[in-house]
Amino acid sequence: MQNKGAIRLFAILLALVCLYQLTFTYFTRKVESDATKHALAVAGPAATPEDILRYEHQYLDSILHEPVYNFFGLRKYSYLDCKEREINFGLDLKGGMNLTLEVKVADVLRALSNYSQDENFIKALALAEEKEKNSTKDFVTLFGEAFTEVAPNGSLAAIFNSAELRDKGLTYSSNNDEVLKVIRSEANSAIDNAFNIIRTRIDRFGVVQPNIQRLQKDGQVLVELPGVTEPERVRNLLKGSASLEFWETYDNQEIFEYLIQADNVIARIEYNKAVQTGTIKDTTVAEEEAVADQIVEEELALLSELESDSTDIAAEEGVTSLFSLLRPTGMATGPVVGIASGRNRDKIDEWLASDQVKSVLPRDLKLMWGVKAIPANELAQYYGVENTRESYYHLIAIRATGHDGRPPLEGDAITTAKERVSQRGSYEIEMSMNAEGAKTWARLTKANIGKSIAIVLDGFVYSYPTVQTEIRGGQSSITGNFTPEEAKDLATILNSGKMPAPARIIEDNVVGPSLGKEAVQSGLVSFIWAFVGVLLYMIFYYGFKAGAIVDVALMVNVFLLMGVLASFNAVLTMPGIAGIVLTLGMAVDANVLIYERIREELRSGKALKASIHDGYKNAFSAILDSNLTTFLTGLILFFFGTGPIKGFATTLMIGIATSFFSAVYITRLIYEWLMKKESFNVEFATGLTRNLFTKVNINFMQNRKIYFALSAIVLLVCVGSLATRGLKQGIDFTGGRTYVVRFEQEVDASKIYESMADAFAGANVEVKTYGSANQIRIATNYMVLDTEESGDKAVEEALYAGIKPFLPEGTASDEFSDKYLMSSQKIGPTVATDMRSKAGWAVALSMLGMFLYIMLRFRNWELSLGAVIGLMHDTLLIFGVFSLFYSVMPFAMEMDQSFIAAILTVIGYSINDNVVVYDRIREYRELYPKRKISEVFNTAMNSTIGRTVNTSLSTMVVLIVIFIFGSETIRGFVFAMTIGVVVGVYSTLCIASPISYLLLRRKAGGDVEISKVSTKLVG
Predict the structure, then answer these.
(1) Residue range 684-732, pLDDT digits in tens
(2) Which of 92, 832, 130 lies closest to 507, judged by CA?
(3) What pTM, to 2 d.p., does this model score?
(4) Span 881-892, pLDDT tens digits
(5) 718 near 1001, Cβ under 8 Å?
(6) Domains recognised in the chain with CATH numbers
(7) Is the Cβ–Cβ distance between 648 and 578 less than 8 Å?
């Protein structure tokens, strides 16, 4: 074995890295376990689950930045650090919310046209919106096509003629293509603004490990929020339009005395609470006042020593007050009145919102938080806070001068804002306003020279520049020590108020925490049983020693796989667990190829050590080819899948890489170590399996007509079913909504169907038992085209009305949503169109990829075509089986993303078989050049029967275990995979190879010696 030392070193380093990455998950789980124990102890036996969850969150928040993992004294990691590096659980395992939001570009175009009432413009917009439902093109392109249809000679420049667009270079003589280019750029800016606003809102929501990303489809944003338990709050938070405002500010010196009074009031309130709860013993009112006054005096005296932790003051006195959580800025100038850590902001807001505190503060005072954390260097230099892991934020004093409490200027006054480099070389923001805004801005800046004006979005201050002079004409420059990124962000924020482009929720998937917990349990059980099954099968077939070595490699494979997943910060979903378990079954293939090859070498009379050496050497090309083709399938899934399917693809690709390394190199290192011993001896079989499949002699080429006839009959039945019954399409491809509802007792799905059919009148409704008899799944396309909030509420009301007769009497709608509704999913028609398109491309590209790979690897198009025809045979047969049985099986057999993932995985699995056979044909051509084409094909195929049966059986063991113990959500996927494994073996031996044989025979002019075939079968 060459480079043995380098491989051993790499294996050790990789193992250490994986172990290091997995320790973060260990410490995270340990802390969360401690949080649960703490919550149970504090809440008491009578506590509700909500109480326990609240105490858990409080405990975790309190130690969020505390060190919980000391890595050999080299670095300390806080709980937040560990949480960010742990293996993430997806929504189906952890519970939570998955949303796809879309900025309605049609609204942006209306705004850009100054809400033109041009008849052709209105017709073109309506036509474009209709086209969008069945197209994957961006909306601006569709609008351009629609306008050409409606008004072939019409001019867009006459519609989009605002001063703002003229600044972008448009004139009345601009052609339609030039106009479309500019409005596409403006639409993209609006989408950027919306994305940044959504991201900021999610950051403020406090979700750990959110996933926010722009999708390829214009205007769409994916938001994944694991662990969220308040979906309605999230929806309300994300759907609202951005509110950009300009406010006048107070100077800190004007407010400081009021804050002292507020601190005094809060100290008394908290003291009284402490007395009532028994934390502090009550004496006399005079003593109470003395204690409160003493606290205020001590806190004011400590303003010059801000480096000390202010919470210690409260701890020592047993009382909490404003200045124990808010570090005031003393007598500093400017609108900043104090700073506080992120975890204390909610408590401070609660205090400041109380009537007692409001009574001592000016009526026109609003206190708002800065949106960004204070940089560490500024925190240390100006506030004396050093060596802290916590994030601190400014509290800014806003002055509401208007009689109605509204800001003097709002974001719709801004026409453009862009970052630029000033003459001094620093970054600044250039801002322009419309005529009305310019007048207000001039009046506002004149009245506030030397003071700050706060730029506020969604109630948070993004910047508070100081006014240097009165600004007329609406042209302003905002200067400061901006980095390029900060300047761009502020320009984006300023632009966010100029277009009414609120985000709509077009896909909504909610999984309750209890359903997620059950998915984790079922996934873990399926993984353990599948793993044990494969380990035992290897020992049964290859004997204890040889089987144990494979088992060690499989355990190393799982360890490396989990470590790499943690390193990549991958999200583990239920399909992802299925991918791991499936990878485990397919990982056996490499070991089987090696062991079967070693057995062949031993039967040819070679010595044990030589057989092991040659077995690894000769099996390598087949292992490499089969792994690369499956990896290609995973890559296609990764690019075209979303959510759980992308998780499946990730684990599949990583699993292929780790299984290749563990099978080819880890086992080889073990054998190299064992072969140094004089007593080394290992048998690669048991008494039952020693000569199994060694005398198989099937004439596949001669029997090809039988196979073709059998396949033709089955495929005709499948095609007939597809033509008459079709496939049952899931909401992934049709749009619609699904709900999983769990009752306290067993229910009759047929009776619920009757009730739901009345509730969802005029729509398609399906009600099926989902797992246990007290749980059902409801799918409907009721109001599928209505994506507005009113439509969502109407569907929810109809759902509750249909389910209400089966709930305990008196169950309110809110209680139904919280207690009985386990999960919900909504997919809009545009998302469904995208998914259908992606599914078609994924299957087509997968077929093309396999054809090209085999043609390049074996330099023979006949083999490629035979393989692709075999793959088409497998795909059509699986489609047919799903068409035939979707109405009779007790689990969902829908055409959805999971089904497409199964098809692509079957394609990858089936091509494995083809590659192994083709690799052996290539080898036998060199060994037996005088044999006929048919003889070489038959010999090669018979010699791989042992490998085929072993790999298929081990994979079947895995699939059966997943089917039995896995969650209901993946049963359809596993069923498709099971069919695919069986059909894939059949198609390789009975369809793909015979077709390749016929093509080669035709090319050679008959069944001649294989050496006379003009195209070489070499790689």
Answers:
(1) 888 888 877 878 889 999 999 999 999 999 999 999 999 998 888 877 7
(2) 832
(3) 0.68
(4) 999 988 888 777
(5) no
(6) 4-86 (no CATH), 100-241 (no CATH), 408-499 (3.30.1360.200), 512-724+833-1012 (1.20.1640.10), 736-826 (3.30.70)
(7) yes
